[in-house]
Amino acid sequence: MNIRFLALEKTFGRKPVEITPVTKRSDIFESKVFNDEKMRQYLDEKSYKQFQQIKFEGKVIDRRLADHIAAAMKRWAMEQGATHYTHWFQPLTGATAEKHDSFLEKTPDGYPLEKFTGSQLAQQEPDASSFPSGGLRNTFEARGYTAWDPASPAFIIGTTLCIPSVFISYNGEALDYKTPLIRSIQFLDKYATRTARLFNRNVERVYATLGWEQEYFLIDKALYKSRPDLVMTGRTLLGHPPAKNQQLDDHYFGSIPERVMAFMRDLEIEALKIGIPVKTRHNEVAPNQYEVAPVFEEVNLAVDHNSMLMDLMKKIASRHHFEVLLHEKPFDYINGSGKHNNWSLMTDTGINLLGPGDTPRRNLRFLTFFVNVIKAVNDYEELIRASIASAGNDHRLGANEAPPAIISVFIGHYLTQVMNELKQVKNGKLSPDEKTELKLEVVGKIPQILKDNTDRNRTSPFAFTGNKFEIRAVGSSANCASPMTVLNTIVGYQLKRFLTDYEKLRAKGLKKDEAIFNILRDYIKSSERILFEGNGYSPEWHREAARRGLSNLKTTPEALRVIKKEKIIRLFEESGVYSRAELKSRYHVHLEQYNTKLEIEARVLSDLISNHIVPTVINYQNRLAESLNRLKNLYPKKAQMWKNNEKILTDVSETFNELLEAHQTLKEALEHLTRTDDDDKKADFIIEKIKPSMAKVRQLSDKLELMIDDELWSLTKYREMLFTR
Ligand code: ADP
Ligand code: MG
If you count Cβ atoms within 10 Å of the first and of the last residue's Cβ in the chain, which end, N or C, has fewer? Predict the structure, then answer.
């Protein structure tokens, strides 16, 4: 029996795995997290207070305090059954990393003892020479350090205490996703707080919030394992679309299959224990596609929680004989997966700065932040595109299922009107009447109109949705830190410019509101090209966007080149988020990742053709030829008895021949690729030669799949992976 039928047999009659139900979710929430409440309980009062004051400041925590916290953490963790600890971090591989150390140590006189010191909490030195650094770290001085991030609480998985950490080189250069994110949070805080204080002197701190929505596919484990391409690359490289896929839209928000529901409940329970506040679950558009979303949180924590969840999903899925596919495009012809990033700004006084209020005063504050975000996106649209670039995401962007690779901002009909009215504000000082009119007619109306503002444009990559912006072009497997770092930085940078512009106008004698209105008018005028309310999937928009001078970077290598531009380097250097050297290293790491992924895909595809498709087709050809011969012998004079059989054989053989030729081309291209060692040249060659040859091979193989005896076909088919539940 071929591997496909073995796998299918395994899936027959799979029952949901029983899980212990938890009815009251609040009982288990953060039960495995060393949160503030536990800290208060396990730590002396003075240390607790000291820690609360500095945990967001990014300062080095003094030795004495670190020792106290470590002792408290250890006591709590051991009560929970933990035996090991690890610094848990997010290197540029895209996966999370951990290296476990036992609490067990020996005293000098040989007694075993459970120990965990402040310096062990603060820093760990994994043998990290195999993590990508893009040249920041030579292997002979491969030391990379992980350092505790006190802003994200420790948690326990299994019997291991996990300490969220950053990963840096010996010289303090960022080797991970989290370090630049934290820098961007601090940079944004500085200028957003100053801006917010123009409206409310009590604001001491502003932080970004993130609410992600994670899409994924769930495939039976046995079927997954029967597909070498899924196992090796996370996506299928071959496969004809099933007759029924998502045309009927019957999966979206449909009732959740029982087996899947058992997985979701189990996942939610485990997620809640480690503090991920999951809230929403539903079916997505494609068959076997689902979504999970939490309540939004402070961005640093939300990023950690998304990485933790992606990790957890894999583990829990295994228990339920499922495999989670986080790839952006696991199945061609069928919708891929994304991860909407809902982003906003919050003050320590509890105000959402992107939420309109019910007075003109509050709305002027809202408009100030709103327009500054739009201007930031306008000025750095290319960089946003670069921040979501990956080999997987290239399949989605612009494929009529996800927003195009063109970044534009959707704000809805009413706010468009408000923008148009603000554009009319006259230059310089305003008369009392003009001011009153602005406040009553334009600014004052916003809260009412937003309540009825339900028009949402799903085709926009960057949409304002009532009290937050939603970035919809992020890939499902991405680390949210990447787009979040960019957004925080460009908005912080823009607010810094706003404050300078503001001071200039104030120095010219303009009143506060006048100055703000004048600046907003100019910003709106200079960033109008980024606003787009129409259908982002339409070909007209591509033409219009080109006319407006917006970038349309269709591939990852093109998008990555943005971070080599002087304008971008300056932005990051001035904001202190990345140094020039760090940017250079990121460029190399990401480009190399892209090349490696595609090279692996091309190799796996080539192997599948050689080892699965070619033998299967030959087998079928033989059968056809044999039966044709017999028929010819039986009816030598009656060609009508076998001419259609002959046609079947001819069709198969012709397509097969084309496939063999296309495969030959792919193999030669692969050889050329192996001989190329410059990464930029490699990337160009992949786009010009490798990808088109892969597409050609696939098209022919998928055509053959329809022609060949189902019983002989050895690769599990789309309909089986997508409709087995
Ligand atoms: P959808 O996009 O599916 O229609 P909603 O707009 O209701 O769903 O909310 C999507 C997400 O927005 C939720 O996960 C929620 O956590 C997040 N969200 C809501 N308010 C904020 C905020 N102020 N900052 C960041 N994320 C937010
Ligand atoms: Mg959404």
Answer: N
Mind listing the domains of the chain with CATH numbers? 32-176 (3.10.20.70), 185-578 (3.30.590.10), 593-721 (1.20.120.1560)
Residues 627 and 645 sit within 8 Å (Cβ to Cβ):
yes
In ligand 1, the atom with minimum distance to the C-alpha of 344 is 24
Q: Which atom of ligand 1 is nearest to the CA of 343?
A: 25
The C-alpha atoms of residue 329 and residue 333 are separated, in whole angstroms, by 9
Bridge partners of 286?
none
Helix (H) or strand (E) holding 451: helix 446-452
The whole-angstrom separation of Cα 452 and Cα 216 is 32
The pTM of this model reads: 0.95
* C-alpha 338 – ligand 2 centre gap (Å): 10
- Which ligand sits nearest to residue 468's alpha carbon? 1
Cα(641) to ligand 1 centroid in Å equals 66
Query: Are 716 and 331 a contacting pair, CB within 8 Å?
Result: no
Which residues are close to ligand 2, an ion, with C-beta < 5 A? 340
Contact 364, 446 (CB under 8 A): no
Closest approach atom of ligand 1 to CA 352: 23
pLDDT, tens digit, 9 for 90 and up, residues 430-440: 888 888 888 88
- Mutation pick for ligand 1 pocket among 460, 468, 469 (CB with most ligand atoms within 8 Å): 468
Q: pLDDT category, 715, cuts 50, 70, 90?
A: very high
Q: From atom 23 of ligand 1, which residue's Cα is the shortest distance away? A: 344
- The dihedral built from the CA positions of residue 711, 713, 719 and 725, taken in this order, carries a sign that is positive
